[in-house]
Amino acid sequence: MNFRGRDIISIKDFSKEEINYILNYSKKMVSYAKGEGHIEKLKGKVLSSLFFEPSTRTRLSFESAMNRLGGRVIGFADPTATSQKKGESLSDTIRMADAYSDAIVIRHPQEGAARLAAEFADIPILNAGDGAGRHPTQCLLDLFTIITEKKKIEKQKVILLGDLKYGRTVHSLAYALSLYGAELIFVSPETLKMPKEVVNECKELGTEPHSTSNLEKAIKDADVLYATRIQKERFPDAEEYNRVVGTYKIDNHLLKNANDKLIVMHPLPRVTEIDPEVDRTHHALYFKQAFNGVPVRMALLSLVTGEKI
User: Are the C-beta atoms of 124 and 67 separated by less than 8 Å?
Assistant: First the structure.
């Protein structure tokens, strides 16, 4: 498959066959991501890293991925230190990055910003999260984590827990898991339920998600528990946030009722939703999940620049 010059804006832009290709290609990058081999396929290439919102794992894993491939990274993590502060438009910022680099990764608080950026760039745009919209590279590393640990995605019973209304990671993941025929259970406070348009997308793909607020009951025969934090920065009303924060807590007491082979995932950062005591259990997979961002993003950068190994 030829991904050269292709934008990575939404997981919905890719077929199941294309996603499988990316996941299989990512396996080739694992040893390089660990520093166990040396590769310079992107030597001489430059990645513009434009982060208009805070990030730790996504930004650093993209930078690590580019460096592991022999390329270089320019950009910013604080938009107040750029000409945006002077009133420069997003389109003009993108045009400048387009002139300076071979690919652009962008995170922005406005939904649709990555799609807009692609209109003004000739080089590939990789969406690192756009508001409460989509997060396709997180989705791909989540799928990679599940298939690596469970050997398949089909018919896995997956709980998506927490902020399903504003959580862009679960919006992308729900669609992709439905594409693979996973069984979905949405667990959230009533005010943070999965948006109807996402639920309808799942149904169109042949999956009938089940919604509940009872985590203890749902966890008993689940294969994957994918938790998200309640995102304070997305709430228009602080009182609404205070009413729902801390609704769910994953701890060892809860996990006593779980399937022994349950894996617990989280896009991180976590706040109060996963007790640190869980870190020492065999269920905890979120730190390995975070590492998987490097080989997956190495694969994507390699593919969109046309420099395959």
Answer: no
| The two three-digit tokens of residue 291, written as one number | 């590492």
Distance (Å, rounded) from C-alpha 48 to C-alpha 163? Answer: 30
Distance of CA 220 to the CA centre of its chain: 26
C-alpha torsion 264→270→276→281, nearest 10: 10
Q: What is the pLDDT of residues 18-48, one digit of tens each?
A: 999 999 999 999 999 999 988 999 999 999 9
The domain of 18 spans 11-134+293-304
pTM of the model as a whole:
0.92
* CATH assignment of the domain containing 223: 3.40.50.1370
The catalytic residue among 41, 45, 58, 165 is 58
Query: What phi, psi does 8 have (nearest 5°)?
Result: -115, 85
**Are 120 and 178 within one domain?**
no
pLDDT of residue 139: 95
Q: Is 57 a known active-site residue?
A: yes
Q: Contact, 185 vs 212, CB < 8 A?
A: yes
Q: Which two tokens stand for residue 3?
A: 């991904």
Confidence class for position 211, pLDDT limits 50, 70, 90: very high
Q: What is the pLDDT of residues 106-123, one digit of tens each?
A: 999 999 999 999 999 999
Same domain, 44 and 121: yes
* 141 and 286 housed in the same domain: yes
Residue 80 has pLDDT above 90, yes or no: no
Q: Is 171 one of the catalytic residues?
A: no
Angle of helix 136-150 relative to helix 293-304, nearest 10 degrees?
120
280 is catalytic: no
Q: Is 283 a catalytic residue?
A: no
Q: Please check whether residue 270 lies inside any domain of the structure.
A: yes
| Total tally of structural domains belonging to the chain | 2
Query: Catalytic residue at 107?
Result: yes
